[in-house]
Amino acid sequence: MDTRTEPAEREPDTTARPPLVREFLLVAGLFIVYKLGRQAANGHVADAYRNADRVWNLERFLHLPGEGSVQGVLLHSESLVRFANTYYATVHFPATVVFLVWLYWRRPGHYTGARQALAVLTGAALALHLLMPLAPPRMLGAAGLIDTGQVYGPSVYGATPTTDTVANQFAAMPSLHFGWAVMVAVGLIAATRSRWRWLWLLHPLLTLLVIVGTANHYWIDAIVAVALLGVALAITRLPQRVTAPRAGCPSPVPVATASAAPLAVSGGSR
User: Fold this and answer.
1) Secondary structure (H, E, C), 77-114
2) Which of 23, 84, 163, 237 fits a disulfide with 258 by CB distance 3.0 to 4.6 angstroms?
3) Which has the closest alpha carbon to 47: 39, 58, 55?
């Protein structure tokens, strides 16, 4: 008798999905609030540069590796640095959207907790952007780094940070690129049972090397992002990954989401 079980990805998640239209309006509304909040944080240029000096000195005090060590590797190949710039510009937001959509359709029991964790993380990031404007290392003379996006392309930022009407370039801490990437990896590892699921950690690892190597973020920006995500996960309590059933044993009951209530718009998300 064949006692092998179906792969976990084929097992249905019977948790009720939140209404699709409501979720779309909620996420879109949170994204708009976050974008408007980011723009409200513009205009604190002097504070941003002072904070950059403090962060740079703190990293040296903590003996963290210089961001230039990563950028130096990228600059050995123009193709490599262009790939890093492209990854920074194009992967961050689409990957997170695909992650949420996949959870919504395939793992609704995990979707609400993941969406809430991302909302809490992004709201906390917005508050920190307002409280502590920070110039990225590509703008800091002491770092000795170049703006790879402007030099090699593509770049998502305007050439003059103080007049950039699309993005707030003085919002380096925390790095939402890295925070969202870690959330995607954690969420997919928790929601699946494939033996290859740990390879999702390559996404935040590659993102970390990209954000540092392109001089868009300091190491500390990533550290703070992980700390805030840890708080967000503790608050929202993602469903735990269910272990695969043993041969001859009934399949486990799908884990229910920690909370079915949507986060209020004031939480902030992107």
Assistant:
1) CHHHHHHHHHHHHHCHHHHHHHHHHHHHHHCHHHHHHH
2) 237
3) 55
pTM score, whole prediction:
0.80
Whether the Cβ atoms of residue 148 and residue 81 lie closer than 8 Å to each other: yes
- DSSP states of 126-189 as a string? HHHHHHS-B--GGG-GGGT---HHHHHS--SS-SSGGG-SS--TTB-SS-HHHHHHHHHHHHHH
Q: For residues 42 and 167, what is the distance between their CA atoms, to the nearest angstrom?
A: 9
Under DSSP, the state recorded for 217 is -
Contact 267, 123 (CB under 8 A): yes
Contact 180, 97 (CB under 8 A): no
Q: Read off the pLDDT of residues 54-64 as tens digits, 9 standing for 90 and up.
A: 999 999 999 99
- CA dist., res. 166 & res. 145, Å (int): 23
C-alpha 165: how far from its chain's center? Answer: 23
Residues 104-152: tens digit of each pLDDT: 999 998 999 999 999 999 989 989 988 999 999 999 999 999 999 999 9
